[in-house]
Design goal:
It is a single chain. The protein is α/β, with parallel strands linked by helices. It has 2 domains: about 260 residues, Type I PLP-dependent aspartate aminotransferase-like (Major domain) (Aspartate Aminotransferase, domain 2); about 120 residues, Aspartate Aminotransferase, domain 1, CATH 3.90.1150. Helices cover about 40% and strands about 10% of the residues. The strands form 4 sheets. Strands 3-9-8-7-6-4-5 form a 7-stranded mixed beta sheet, with helices on both faces. Helix 6 packs parallel to helix 13. About 40% of the residues are buried.
Length: about 475
């Protein structure tokens, strides 16, 4: 049988319309491709069966570790479970098969979803307007700082300094510098919060704004946030909210009510969408009304009885990304918000805080916390005592892998010696938290019995401990045949 007949008979029909037959080329490949681009010999690929290929990639998938495999207590970067119902919604044909350039009339349902998401995120954060365009959290930061820059320029203000706490996420100072600002670090006080006295001495007529996370990177709530906002605003600066830790206060308190003027969100952290591996991502930005004219275009608007994309306007910072963001990720966040509802969002924060404080109490007999008192969604341990006994934070982290757990973030934030950040998230059970704490306590005992066991860990992985510094500075890239 002619293979073309098979294709013709199996051609799908959608919405009652037959897809037109394809134009199968009759010319030889040598006539269609320049000779310089054609291989002179077959590629050096192994001859393997389908079964061998399937087993190979299945084995590789089993080497991966993620939230579907086990606890992922990666402090500073919420790695919570992503409900599969979100994926099913995003995979509906009217969402998955949409092309970004098709007429607006044909995607009114999807545009309504995006509009509803904008409204929901604005309500949750206490903002007046949102853009869903930024492709990730750091991209949201850049969008926000461009908005700050455009607003100050319109006001005729030559402000060049962005203030960043010394415990902030590394993207904050990096983004501020990329946006063309001078970065100055605000020190922490003895309680691990922003040093309010130091801040008062740093804010002046050059201050464009303060980038702040609340709770902060140490897992502590900035209980002087209203005073901080007043200090910045009195000098004409803006207060920027890094939404990385919104998970801890979701449904309880809103950044807009604390005095923040603009905010970026990490949908993969707070609203349960895919995270890691370089993407996909989404970093929506919300602003108070006076900053809305500067949001990137195009904007979604209701025009003559339909949703339309409209120009951002004369004050807009312009387009920050092709089309309108990662729609599949945005739809997942919309599904999560609908499934949780207001009370469910509050429960997210309550369980995140409860789990963190429970785990902190479980570890306190053997591990020293960086700062005293209750925490929010995460906490930071200082493994100084373990280091004095022969095991660094890195050694404890590597040994955790042998117990089947992904290790928490180590050596960050820099303000804590031998730091280990732990964030259990609200999605983990008490049994899982107990197993993790039991592993941590057992490792602490191993330091005295056999410190070499930790120094050489992990012992049960396909690849043993690597020289990470050397690998980063002198990567050795190997191609087939070498």
């Amino acid at each position: 049988m002619d293979v073309r007949l098979i294709f013709e008979r199996s051609r799908p029909k959608r919405r009652g319309v037959t897809v037109p037959p394809g134009d199968f080329p009759s010319r030889r490949i040598e006539e269609m491709v320049p000779a310089a681009l054609l291989r002179e010999a077959p590629p050096p690929l192994p001859e393997v069966s389908e079964l061998e290929v399937v087993r190979h990639y299945t084995y590789l998938s089993q080497l991966n570790y993620g939230v579907d495999s086990g606890l992922y207590p990666l402090g500073s970067c919420t790695m919570k479970y992503n409900p599969k119902v979100n994926d099913r919604v995003a995979e509906l044909p009217g969402i998955r098969e949409v092309h970004p350039l098709q007429p607006e009339e044909t995607v009114q349902g999807l545009l309504e979803i995006l509009h509803q998401l904008e409204l929901a995120l604005a309500e949750v954060t206490g903002m007046d307007a949102m853009t869903l365009q930024p492709a990730a959290g750091a991209h949201g930061e850049l969008t926000g700082l461009f908005i700050v820059k455009a607003y100050l320029r319109e006001c005729g203000e030559a402000r060049t300094v962005i203030l960043v706490p010394d415990s902030a996420h590394g993207t904050n100072p990096a983004t501020a510098a990329m946006a063309g600002f001078e970065v100055r670090h605000v020190p922490s006080d003895s309680r691990g919060r922003v040093d309010l006295a130091a801040l008062r001495g740093m804010v002046d007529q050059r201050t464009a704004g303060l980038m702040l996370t609340n709770p902060n990177t140490l897992g502590l709530f900035e209980d002087q946030i209203l005073e901080i906002a007043e200090v910045v605003h009195r000098q004409g600066g803006l207060l920027y909210y890094d939404g990385a830790n919104l998970n801890a206060i979701l449904g309880k308190v809103r950044p807009g009510d604390m005095g923040f003027d603009l905010v970026h969100l990490n949908l993969h952290k707070t609203f349960s969408t895919p995270h890691g591996g370089g993407g996909p991502g989404a970093g929506p930005v919300g602003v108070k009304a006076f900053l809305a004219p500067y949001l990137p275009g195009p904007r979604l608007a209701w025009v003559e009885g339909a949703w339309r994309w409209v120009d951002g306007g004369p004050h807009s910072i312009g387009q920050m990304r092709a089309f309108y963001g990662n729609v599949g990720v945005l739809v997942r966040a919309w599904a999560y918000l609908l499934s949780q509802g207001p009370e469910g969002l509050k429960a997210v924060a309550e369980m995140a805080v409860l789990n963190a404080n429970y785990l902190k109490a479980q570890l306190s007999p053997s591990y020293q916390t960086a700062f005293a008192g209750p925490v929010q969604h995460e906490f930071v341990l200082s493994l100084k005592r373990q280091k004095q006994r022969g095991a660094k934070a890195l050694d404890v982290a590597k040994r955790l892998i042998d117990y089947g757990f992904y290790p928490p973030t180590v050596y960050f934030p820099l303000v804590v010696e031998e730091a280990m950040m732990v964030e259990p998230t609200e999605t983990e059970s008490k049994q899982t938290l107990d197993a993790f704490s039991a592993a941590m306590l057992a490792i602490d005992q191993e330091i005295d019995r056999d410190p070499a066991l930790l120094a050489e860990a992990p012992h049960r992985t396909v690849v043993r401990r690597l020289d990470e510094a050397l690998a980063a500075r002198q990567p050795r890239l190997v191609w087939a045949g070498e």
